Amino acid sequence: MLRLFTYAEEKSELQRHLSRTVTFEPEVREVVQEILTNIEKRGDKALFEYTEKFQGFKPGEITVSADLIEEAYRSADRDFVAILEEAYNNITAFHKHESERSFFYEGENRVILGQRVTPLERVMLYVPGGKAAYPSSLLMNVVPAQVAGVQEIFLTTPCDSEGRVSSHILAAAHVAGIDTIYKFGGAQAVAAFAFGTERVPKVDKITGPGNKYVALAKKEVFGHVSIDSIAGPSEVAVIADDSADPEFIVLDLFAQSEHDPDASSVLITDSSELAEAVKTLATEKVSAMQRSDIIQQALAANGAIVLTKDIREACEVSNMIAPEHLELHVRDSWEILPDLKHAGAIFMGSYSCESVGDYFAGPNHTLPTNGTARFFSPLSVRDFIKHTSLISYSKEQLGLSGEKIAQFADHENLQAHAEAVRARLRKLGR
């Protein structure tokens, strides 16, 4: 089930086995392009047709009423509501540390330069609600937008054929103070908010996970709106030495693999004894898992145990993978942290399992996948703000710098650029 690789001897084969890219089949591209084109041209009529076709729901009212949101919250298990509220507070506390401020500074001759930070005005947060409903994703997308100061936050999530939305999603929305929830999903939801329709507002940004149709639709509308990223299957890498607990590692690999048959779970260790223990224990325990079939498929296709000569080489393997989640089950996780350059989130120590970050700790669980942790970051407050440069030049400073600026323009053969400066210099008698 879990294939063992020796890194020094099988590096190229390991790279091939773990290679990950987001690809979309031609038939998916065709369906998504048709949906985008139709909704851009025909608005609500096309949106409602697709909602009935794919969700079995013929829209009348397209948003969830405030009464239903309140009812879901009131009728939810009180212990679960308390957990949602504490998680929301933890996530908010963390994201407040990401807040940015505008800055301005004054140079010579009364020149003022700066950067103004302003929130986006409207965002749509996509929350899966079909086969799997994830209130944790709702909280992780809502909080950074709220902390950034976004004024209009819309949620959309698929409903069933009767127009019902997951009560867990509604309860989480109530906890987060969100009262505008649309009842459709898929590529049609992305298109509606990207282009705007008669009853759906055009937004500035779309975030949140979804299936391959949602992911491709987000990719295609980028430019009409901003998006967070193109999410691929989830992944975890675990670096462990001989002090690690095999059961912890096996369950953490299972936790990742139960998401999806395409999920990737990799153990990287310098201990052959640990490698064998994990391999054996995984085989013994998998049948007891509710999603054992999915776990076995994922581990067979995308799982691996990588044996390295030492922990430093284990860090090299992790950097090659650039995993979404990276767990450190070693004696001193802080000691090896400087060697780890690429990961969406790093979980320090054997009691910092990925589940802690997925639900409760505070940092965002919307993370870069498919090796994009080499250049992408987790979803954050920064995704919901924009920066505007401010330049206030004085007559005195333009008089001193103007001819240099004009000559720069001359070298780029942009006459009007240069003349715009020289006209002002002539007014100044220069």
Write a structural description.
With 430 residues, the chain is an alpha/beta fold. It has three domains: 4-19 and 232-361, 3-Layer(aba) Sandwich (Rossmann fold), CATH 3.40.50.1980; 26-227, Nitrogenase molybdenum iron protein domain (Rossmann fold); 393-427, no CATH class. It has helices at residues 7-18, 26-42, 44-55, 66-75, 78-96, 135-148, 167-176, 186-195, 212-221, 246-257, 272-285, 292-302, 311-321, 333-336, 354-359, 395-411, 415-427, and strands spanning 4-6, 103-106, 112-119, 122-126, 152-156, 181-182, 205-207, 226-227, 235-240, 264-269, 304-307, 325-329, 345-348, 385-392. The strands form three sheets. Strands 1-11-10-9-12-13 form a six-stranded parallel beta sheet, with helices on both faces. Strands 6-5-4-7-8 form a five-stranded parallel beta sheet, sandwiched between helices. Helix 9 (212-221) links the parallel strand 7 and strand 8 (226-227). Helix 2 crosses helix 8, helix 2 (26-42) packs across helix 9 (212-221) and helix 16 (395-411) runs antiparallel to helix 17. It is globular and about 85 Å long.
